[in-house]
Amino acid sequence: MSTWIVTGGAGFIGSNFVRQAFATTSNRLVVFDSLTYAGHIESIEDLFADERVSFVRGDIADRDAVRALLSEHRPQAIVNFAAESHVDRSIDGPGDFVRTNVNGTFELLEASRALLATFSDEDRAAFRFLHVSTDEVYGSLGETGAFREDTPYAPNSPYSASKASADHLVRAWHETYGLPTLITNCSNNYGPYQFPEKLIPLMIMNALEGKKLPIYGDGGNIRDWLYVTDHCDAILAVLKKGKVGEKYNVGGNSERTNLQVVDALCAAIEAERPARSNPALKDQGLGAYNELKTFVKDRPGHDRRYAIDASKIRRELGFAPQHAFESGLRLTVRWYLDNAEWTSAVTRGKYDRERLGHATRA
User: Fold this and answer.
1) CATH superfamily label, 3-193+225-254+303-323
2) Which residues contact 61 (CB under 8 A, 6 or more apart)?
3) Which end of the chain lies in a sparser environment, N or C, as judged by fewer CB atoms within 10 Å?
């Protein structure tokens, strides 16, 4: 039985990956997570009943903790989801992003290099270090075109700059030290277990409670949306068949403006819980969820458009997403409706859906 260490495995994408890997592989899964505001043991604790899944609380930037983890478990793969990931928070406090995303990745790479020095040639050849990154490292697109794996990096936020730095470290550790690395750069994820500071879960919760639906700027910023389990399938494919030293873009082929996303969400919520039967709207004299939309001041450095060219992973590894945006959105709305206790537990005392990222230019 192979052992995989999943850093950040109690976060949004990480917890979905742990569930997917548990269901579709026979591997032992060790979740390593510091349980910051966006990491929640509630997202995976039901899996601990099986001896194949275990949890270690720790910080990837803690050298001693990382070295001890790898020494004890001697994994065949490390999948690095651990990251500070919210652009607005990176504007307010960039230091945390540098510490976790840059320094933490460095510590993982160095610990992996030390571990491989103790492996046999066969085990060294089988080892994989997969670093999960973002399309935001490429910067902002114009009205046409899409990010390819060879698109030059041009990050515009502290978050994307920290992820770009981590990507470069991973690539350098392969080129310099021969570490068997892989990098994936994904588009915007959505789905179950996402902390409600992000657009889609925030809008779902606010709409259900009759609160304003804040839309940055003119609502015309475009993202390519990827259902989270599709992303997890892509990562599993890269682990299984990806070429060492390569990077793979993962997208959902679902470009939408933020305004289109909010409108689609309002329609999906209406289908599940009609506004006319929601007291939070009736008390305000509102008859539709889209009447809650409000435009607010844009955030600094807001990239206008992202789009992913995912032809490489489709051509070389046979991966294609299985969820259209509308069907994935319906699944997401239903999950949040059915899991109000999870949402309440993970936000209590940590986040009151306040606006973040107010910093202005000097």
Assistant:
1) NAD(P)-binding Rossmann-like Domain (3.40.50.720)
2) 99, 100, 103, 104, 107
3) C
